[in-house]
Specification:
It is a single chain. The chain is of the alpha/beta class and 394 residues long. 48% of the residues lie in helices and 16% in strands. The protein folds into 2 domains: 7-164 and 367-380, Rossmann fold, CATH 3.40.50; 170-365, 3-Layer(aba) Sandwich (Rossmann fold). The chain is globular, with a radius of gyration of 21 Å.
Protein backbone atom coordinates (compact mmCIF):
# COMPACT_ATOMS: atom_id res chain seq x y z
CA UNK A 1 0.00 0.00 0.00
CA UNK A 2 1.39 3.41 -0.95
CA UNK A 3 1.12 6.27 1.53
CA UNK A 4 -0.99 9.27 0.62
CA UNK A 5 0.56 12.55 -0.41
CA UNK A 6 0.94 15.43 2.04
CA UNK A 7 -2.06 17.74 2.48
CA UNK A 8 -0.84 21.31 2.93
CA UNK A 9 -3.26 24.19 3.50
CA UNK A 10 -2.13 27.73 2.65
CA UNK A 11 -3.58 31.24 2.76
CA UNK A 12 -2.07 34.17 0.85
CA UNK A 13 -3.85 37.50 1.13
CA UNK A 14 -2.39 39.65 -1.66
CA UNK A 15 -0.21 39.68 -4.77
CA UNK A 16 3.11 39.65 -2.88
CA UNK A 17 1.97 36.64 -0.85
CA UNK A 18 0.89 34.89 -4.05
CA UNK A 19 4.42 35.38 -5.40
CA UNK A 20 6.06 33.95 -2.27
CA UNK A 21 3.65 31.04 -2.01
CA UNK A 22 3.90 30.21 -5.71
CA UNK A 23 7.67 29.81 -5.48
CA UNK A 24 7.37 27.79 -2.29
CA UNK A 25 4.82 25.41 -3.83
CA UNK A 26 7.12 24.97 -6.83
CA UNK A 27 10.04 24.03 -4.56
CA UNK A 28 7.86 21.69 -2.48
CA UNK A 29 6.52 19.93 -5.58
CA UNK A 30 10.08 18.86 -6.36
CA UNK A 31 10.28 17.22 -2.92
CA UNK A 32 6.66 16.12 -2.45
CA UNK A 33 5.41 15.26 -5.95
CA UNK A 34 2.11 13.83 -4.65
CA UNK A 35 1.29 16.70 -2.28
CA UNK A 36 -2.02 18.52 -2.42
CA UNK A 37 -2.11 22.28 -1.77
CA UNK A 38 -5.37 24.10 -1.01
CA UNK A 39 -6.86 27.14 0.75
CA UNK A 40 -6.78 30.75 -0.52
CA UNK A 41 -4.36 31.82 -3.22
CA UNK A 42 -3.81 33.74 -6.41
CA UNK A 43 -2.79 33.05 -10.03
CA UNK A 44 0.86 32.17 -9.33
CA UNK A 45 -0.21 29.56 -6.78
CA UNK A 46 -2.94 28.23 -9.06
CA UNK A 47 -0.38 27.76 -11.86
CA UNK A 48 1.46 25.43 -9.47
CA UNK A 49 -1.67 23.28 -9.05
CA UNK A 50 -3.05 25.05 -5.98
CA UNK A 51 -6.78 24.57 -5.22
CA UNK A 52 -8.25 27.89 -4.10
CA UNK A 53 -11.47 28.01 -2.08
CA UNK A 54 -11.93 31.80 -2.07
CA UNK A 55 -10.48 34.54 -4.35
CA UNK A 56 -7.29 36.13 -3.06
CA UNK A 57 -8.66 39.58 -3.92
CA UNK A 58 -11.28 39.27 -1.16
CA UNK A 59 -8.49 39.53 1.44
CA UNK A 60 -6.40 42.22 -0.30
CA UNK A 61 -7.50 45.09 1.95
CA UNK A 62 -5.02 47.33 3.77
CA UNK A 63 -5.62 49.62 6.73
CA UNK A 64 -7.81 49.60 9.83
CA UNK A 65 -10.65 51.65 8.36
CA UNK A 66 -10.66 49.64 5.13
CA UNK A 67 -10.75 46.32 7.01
CA UNK A 68 -13.69 47.55 9.10
CA UNK A 69 -15.66 48.26 5.91
CA UNK A 70 -15.03 44.69 4.68
CA UNK A 71 -15.14 43.03 8.10
CA UNK A 72 -18.28 40.96 7.56
CA UNK A 73 -17.01 39.46 4.29
CA UNK A 74 -13.51 38.74 5.66
CA UNK A 75 -14.89 37.28 8.90
CA UNK A 76 -17.21 35.02 6.91
CA UNK A 77 -14.34 33.73 4.77
CA UNK A 78 -12.19 32.98 7.82
CA UNK A 79 -15.09 31.24 9.57
CA UNK A 80 -15.70 29.03 6.51
CA UNK A 81 -12.00 28.25 6.17
CA UNK A 82 -11.64 27.45 9.87
CA UNK A 83 -14.67 25.14 9.77
CA UNK A 84 -13.38 23.21 6.77
CA UNK A 85 -9.82 22.89 8.07
CA UNK A 86 -10.85 21.78 11.55
CA UNK A 87 -13.33 19.27 10.11
CA UNK A 88 -10.55 17.68 8.05
CA UNK A 89 -7.22 18.92 9.43
CA UNK A 90 -4.33 19.27 6.97
CA UNK A 91 -0.88 17.85 7.68
CA UNK A 92 0.44 21.41 7.91
CA UNK A 93 -0.81 24.97 7.52
CA UNK A 94 1.19 27.85 6.01
CA UNK A 95 -0.09 31.39 6.45
CA UNK A 96 1.62 33.66 3.95
CA UNK A 97 1.72 37.21 5.35
CA UNK A 98 -1.84 38.60 6.04
CA UNK A 99 -1.20 38.32 9.82
CA UNK A 100 -4.54 39.79 10.92
CA UNK A 101 -6.31 37.02 9.02
CA UNK A 102 -3.84 34.16 9.42
CA UNK A 103 -2.66 34.31 13.04
CA UNK A 104 -6.14 33.61 14.44
CA UNK A 105 -6.53 30.70 12.04
CA UNK A 106 -3.06 29.40 12.88
CA UNK A 107 -3.78 29.53 16.62
CA UNK A 108 -6.93 27.41 16.23
CA UNK A 109 -5.13 24.83 14.08
CA UNK A 110 -2.09 24.69 16.37
CA UNK A 111 -4.40 23.93 19.31
CA UNK A 112 -5.81 21.04 17.26
CA UNK A 113 -2.27 19.70 16.81
CA UNK A 114 -1.65 20.90 13.24
CA UNK A 115 1.90 22.26 12.69
CA UNK A 116 1.67 25.91 11.61
CA UNK A 117 4.15 28.05 9.71
CA UNK A 118 3.81 31.78 9.24
CA UNK A 119 5.74 32.89 6.15
CA UNK A 120 6.73 36.57 6.33
CA UNK A 121 7.27 38.12 9.72
CA UNK A 122 4.63 40.72 10.67
CA UNK A 123 6.18 44.17 10.83
CA UNK A 124 6.90 44.19 14.56
CA UNK A 125 10.11 46.03 13.63
CA UNK A 126 8.04 48.93 12.29
CA UNK A 127 5.21 49.02 14.85
CA UNK A 128 5.03 48.41 18.55
CA UNK A 129 5.86 44.78 19.27
CA UNK A 130 2.87 43.61 21.32
CA UNK A 131 1.83 41.32 18.46
CA UNK A 132 4.88 39.10 18.99
CA UNK A 133 3.17 37.33 21.94
CA UNK A 134 0.23 36.43 19.70
CA UNK A 135 2.67 35.09 17.12
CA UNK A 136 4.29 32.81 19.69
CA UNK A 137 0.91 31.25 20.54
CA UNK A 138 0.01 30.76 16.89
CA UNK A 139 3.03 29.37 15.07
CA UNK A 140 5.23 26.31 15.18
CA UNK A 141 7.84 28.25 13.18
CA UNK A 142 8.07 31.61 11.47
CA UNK A 143 9.97 32.16 8.20
CA UNK A 144 11.34 35.69 7.86
CA UNK A 145 12.58 37.56 4.82
CA UNK A 146 14.96 40.11 6.28
CA UNK A 147 18.29 39.55 8.08
CA UNK A 148 17.52 41.73 11.12
CA UNK A 149 14.34 39.79 12.01
CA UNK A 150 15.56 36.49 13.57
CA UNK A 151 16.95 38.19 16.67
CA UNK A 152 13.53 39.69 17.43
CA UNK A 153 11.90 36.25 17.54
CA UNK A 154 14.79 34.39 19.16
CA UNK A 155 14.56 36.84 22.06
CA UNK A 156 10.99 35.59 22.65
CA UNK A 157 11.92 31.91 22.10
CA UNK A 158 9.86 31.70 18.90
CA UNK A 159 11.32 29.19 16.38
CA UNK A 160 12.48 31.24 13.39
CA UNK A 161 14.29 30.67 10.09
CA UNK A 162 15.75 33.43 7.91
CA UNK A 163 15.10 32.50 4.28
CA UNK A 164 15.85 35.74 2.42
CA UNK A 165 13.54 37.11 -0.25
CA UNK A 166 12.73 35.19 -3.48
CA UNK A 167 12.80 38.39 -5.53
CA UNK A 168 16.50 38.69 -4.73
CA UNK A 169 17.01 35.27 -6.33
CA UNK A 170 14.83 36.07 -9.34
CA UNK A 171 15.98 39.57 -10.27
CA UNK A 172 19.41 40.16 -11.82
CA UNK A 173 22.22 41.78 -9.87
CA UNK A 174 23.24 43.78 -12.93
CA UNK A 175 21.34 46.63 -14.59
CA UNK A 176 18.59 45.27 -16.87
CA UNK A 177 17.59 48.62 -18.38
CA UNK A 178 18.69 47.95 -21.97
CA UNK A 179 16.99 44.53 -22.42
CA UNK A 180 13.83 45.80 -20.72
CA UNK A 181 13.62 48.76 -23.10
CA UNK A 182 14.23 46.51 -26.08
CA UNK A 183 11.46 44.17 -24.93
CA UNK A 184 9.00 47.05 -24.49
CA UNK A 185 10.07 48.82 -27.68
CA UNK A 186 11.32 52.01 -26.00
CA UNK A 187 14.16 54.13 -27.42
CA UNK A 188 17.31 54.14 -25.23
CA UNK A 189 17.34 57.94 -24.84
CA UNK A 190 13.68 58.52 -23.99
CA UNK A 191 12.91 59.58 -20.39
CA UNK A 192 10.73 56.90 -18.77
CA UNK A 193 8.92 56.82 -15.43
CA UNK A 194 7.20 53.78 -13.95
CA UNK A 195 3.97 54.38 -12.00
CA UNK A 196 3.01 51.72 -9.45
CA UNK A 197 0.07 52.98 -7.37
CA UNK A 198 -0.48 49.62 -5.63
CA UNK A 199 -1.71 46.08 -6.16
CA UNK A 200 -4.84 46.39 -3.97
CA UNK A 201 -8.05 48.05 -5.10
CA UNK A 202 -8.07 50.16 -1.91
CA UNK A 203 -4.61 51.52 -2.78
CA UNK A 204 -5.73 52.55 -6.28
CA UNK A 205 -8.70 54.36 -4.77
CA UNK A 206 -6.34 56.51 -2.69
CA UNK A 207 -3.31 56.82 -4.99
CA UNK A 208 -4.29 56.65 -8.68
CA UNK A 209 -5.47 60.26 -9.06
CA UNK A 210 -2.36 61.62 -7.33
CA UNK A 211 0.00 59.53 -9.48
CA UNK A 212 -1.74 60.67 -12.67
CA UNK A 213 -1.61 64.32 -11.57
CA UNK A 214 2.13 63.95 -10.87
CA UNK A 215 2.60 62.46 -14.36
CA UNK A 216 0.80 65.47 -15.84
CA UNK A 217 3.21 67.87 -14.09
CA UNK A 218 6.22 65.88 -15.29
CA UNK A 219 4.82 65.87 -18.83
CA UNK A 220 4.49 69.66 -18.72
CA UNK A 221 8.21 69.97 -17.88
CA UNK A 222 9.35 67.04 -20.01
CA UNK A 223 6.95 66.50 -22.96
CA UNK A 224 8.98 63.60 -24.37
CA UNK A 225 8.62 61.54 -21.17
CA UNK A 226 6.84 58.17 -21.29
CA UNK A 227 4.97 56.68 -18.33
CA UNK A 228 4.60 52.93 -17.81
CA UNK A 229 1.78 51.78 -15.52
CA UNK A 230 1.72 48.02 -14.89
CA UNK A 231 -1.50 46.78 -13.29
CA UNK A 232 -1.64 43.63 -11.14
CA UNK A 233 -5.27 42.67 -11.84
CA UNK A 234 -8.18 43.48 -14.13
CA UNK A 235 -9.87 45.26 -11.21
CA UNK A 236 -6.93 47.58 -10.54
CA UNK A 237 -6.61 48.34 -14.26
CA UNK A 238 -10.27 49.38 -14.38
CA UNK A 239 -9.76 51.65 -11.36
CA UNK A 240 -6.70 53.27 -12.97
CA UNK A 241 -8.56 53.79 -16.25
CA UNK A 242 -11.40 55.44 -14.32
CA UNK A 243 -8.85 57.78 -12.69
CA UNK A 244 -7.48 58.67 -16.13
CA UNK A 245 -10.97 59.62 -17.25
CA UNK A 246 -11.60 61.68 -14.09
CA UNK A 247 -8.34 63.52 -14.63
CA UNK A 248 -9.05 64.03 -18.36
CA UNK A 249 -5.59 62.59 -18.91
CA UNK A 250 -6.16 61.03 -22.30
CA UNK A 251 -3.38 63.12 -23.82
CA UNK A 252 -0.73 61.84 -21.42
CA UNK A 253 1.71 59.25 -22.86
CA UNK A 254 0.81 56.60 -20.27
CA UNK A 255 1.19 53.00 -21.41
CA UNK A 256 -0.93 50.61 -19.37
CA UNK A 257 0.54 47.13 -18.97
CA UNK A 258 -1.04 43.97 -17.60
CA UNK A 259 1.66 42.60 -15.33
CA UNK A 260 5.23 43.23 -16.55
CA UNK A 261 5.97 45.30 -13.45
CA UNK A 262 9.60 44.20 -13.36
CA UNK A 263 10.14 45.11 -17.00
CA UNK A 264 8.46 48.49 -16.50
CA UNK A 265 10.65 49.34 -13.51
CA UNK A 266 13.83 48.04 -15.14
CA UNK A 267 13.14 50.16 -18.25
CA UNK A 268 12.51 53.34 -16.26
CA UNK A 269 14.76 56.19 -15.21
CA UNK A 270 12.84 56.54 -11.94
CA UNK A 271 9.91 54.83 -10.22
CA UNK A 272 6.92 56.28 -8.37
CA UNK A 273 5.59 53.55 -6.09
CA UNK A 274 3.10 53.10 -3.31
CA UNK A 275 4.81 51.81 -0.19
CA UNK A 276 4.91 48.01 -0.30
CA UNK A 277 6.56 45.17 -2.18
CA UNK A 278 6.91 47.29 -5.34
CA UNK A 279 9.44 49.47 -3.52
CA UNK A 280 11.57 46.39 -2.77
CA UNK A 281 11.30 45.28 -6.40
CA UNK A 282 12.46 48.71 -7.58
CA UNK A 283 15.37 48.56 -5.13
CA UNK A 284 16.46 45.13 -6.36
CA UNK A 285 16.33 46.52 -9.92
CA UNK A 286 18.60 49.37 -8.66
CA UNK A 287 16.13 52.08 -9.64
CA UNK A 288 15.87 55.47 -7.93
CA UNK A 289 12.35 55.89 -6.63
CA UNK A 290 9.91 58.09 -4.81
CA UNK A 291 7.73 56.32 -2.25
CA UNK A 292 4.23 57.72 -1.73
CA UNK A 293 1.28 56.56 0.30
CA UNK A 294 -2.18 57.71 1.31
CA UNK A 295 -4.78 55.92 3.39
CA UNK A 296 -7.94 56.57 5.38
CA UNK A 297 -7.39 59.33 7.98
CA UNK A 298 -8.29 57.00 10.87
CA UNK A 299 -5.82 54.36 9.66
CA UNK A 300 -3.11 56.99 9.32
CA UNK A 301 -3.74 58.37 12.81
CA UNK A 302 -3.53 54.91 14.39
CA UNK A 303 -0.38 53.96 12.48
CA UNK A 304 1.39 57.20 13.38
CA UNK A 305 0.65 56.54 17.05
CA UNK A 306 2.19 53.07 16.81
CA UNK A 307 5.17 53.75 14.56
CA UNK A 308 8.64 54.06 15.98
CA UNK A 309 10.77 53.96 12.81
CA UNK A 310 11.22 57.24 10.94
CA UNK A 311 10.64 55.54 7.56
CA UNK A 312 8.06 53.15 6.13
CA UNK A 313 9.53 52.14 2.75
CA UNK A 314 11.30 48.77 2.73
CA UNK A 315 14.40 50.10 0.91
CA UNK A 316 14.95 52.69 3.66
CA UNK A 317 14.16 50.18 6.43
CA UNK A 318 16.69 47.70 5.02
CA UNK A 319 19.34 50.37 4.54
CA UNK A 320 18.70 51.80 8.02
CA UNK A 321 18.57 55.32 6.61
CA UNK A 322 16.74 57.48 4.10
CA UNK A 323 18.13 56.35 0.74
CA UNK A 324 15.08 57.51 -1.25
CA UNK A 325 12.41 60.10 -0.39
CA UNK A 326 9.05 59.19 1.18
CA UNK A 327 5.91 61.33 0.93
CA UNK A 328 3.08 60.16 3.13
CA UNK A 329 -0.52 61.31 3.48
CA UNK A 330 -0.80 65.12 3.16
CA UNK A 331 2.81 65.37 1.88
CA UNK A 332 2.03 63.04 -1.05
CA UNK A 333 1.05 65.89 -3.38
CA UNK A 334 1.50 65.76 -7.16
CA UNK A 335 3.90 68.71 -6.90
CA UNK A 336 6.19 67.00 -4.37
CA UNK A 337 6.21 63.73 -6.28
CA UNK A 338 6.89 65.31 -9.67
CA UNK A 339 9.67 67.51 -8.29
CA UNK A 340 11.46 64.60 -6.66
CA UNK A 341 11.18 62.36 -9.73
CA UNK A 342 12.46 65.02 -12.10
CA UNK A 343 15.38 65.66 -9.72
CA UNK A 344 16.68 62.13 -10.29
CA UNK A 345 17.17 62.77 -14.02
CA UNK A 346 19.72 65.52 -13.46
CA UNK A 347 21.52 64.12 -10.39
CA UNK A 348 23.77 61.33 -11.62
CA UNK A 349 25.76 61.24 -8.37
CA UNK A 350 22.62 60.58 -6.36
CA UNK A 351 21.54 57.85 -8.77
CA UNK A 352 24.91 56.11 -8.40
CA UNK A 353 24.75 56.23 -4.57
CA UNK A 354 21.24 54.79 -4.59
CA UNK A 355 22.24 51.97 -6.97
CA UNK A 356 25.18 51.00 -4.75
CA UNK A 357 23.02 50.97 -1.60
CA UNK A 358 20.46 48.80 -3.38
CA UNK A 359 23.13 46.36 -4.63
CA UNK A 360 24.24 45.77 -1.04
CA UNK A 361 20.63 45.04 -0.04
CA UNK A 362 20.28 42.65 -2.98
CA UNK A 363 23.32 40.62 -1.95
CA UNK A 364 22.09 40.30 1.65
CA UNK A 365 18.64 39.08 0.57
CA UNK A 366 19.83 36.54 -2.02
CA UNK A 367 19.53 33.28 -0.04
CA UNK A 368 17.95 30.67 -2.38
CA UNK A 369 14.73 31.43 -0.55
CA UNK A 370 12.31 28.86 -1.97
CA UNK A 371 14.65 25.96 -1.16
CA UNK A 372 15.32 27.19 2.37
CA UNK A 373 11.61 27.68 3.02
CA UNK A 374 10.79 24.25 1.56
CA UNK A 375 13.31 22.54 3.85
CA UNK A 376 11.75 24.28 6.87
CA UNK A 377 8.31 23.03 5.78
CA UNK A 378 9.55 19.46 5.31
CA UNK A 379 11.06 19.44 8.80
CA UNK A 380 7.63 20.20 10.33
CA UNK A 381 5.58 17.74 8.29
CA UNK A 382 4.45 14.59 10.13
CA UNK A 383 6.56 11.58 9.18
CA UNK A 384 3.70 9.87 7.31
CA UNK A 385 3.15 12.94 5.13
CA UNK A 386 6.82 13.13 4.09
CA UNK A 387 7.44 9.40 3.76
CA UNK A 388 7.92 9.66 0.00
CA UNK A 389 9.75 12.98 0.00
CA UNK A 390 12.53 13.33 -2.55
CA UNK A 391 15.81 13.81 -0.62
CA UNK A 392 17.69 17.08 -0.99
CA UNK A 393 20.60 17.10 -3.40
CA UNK A 394 23.99 16.67 -1.77
Amino acid sequence: MTSRGARIAMVAGEASGDLLAGHLIGALRGKLPNARFFGIGGPKMIRQGFETWHPLESLAVRGYAEVLRHYREIFGIRRDLKRRLLAEPPDLFIGVDAPDFNLTLERALKRRGVPTIHYVGPSIWAWRGRRIHSIGKSVSRILVLFPFEPALYEKENIPVTYVGHPLADLLPLEDARAPARELLGIAPQRPVFALLPGSRQSELEYMADTFIAAARLIHQSLPEALFLAPMATRETRLLFEAALRRGEAGELPIRLLFGHAHEAMAASDAVLAASGTATLEAALLKRPMVIAYRMAPLTCWLMRRMAYLPYVGLPNVLAGRFVVPEFLQEEATPENLARALLGFLSDQESRARIAEAFREIHLRLRQNTAEKAAEAVLALLPSEARKNAVPAAA
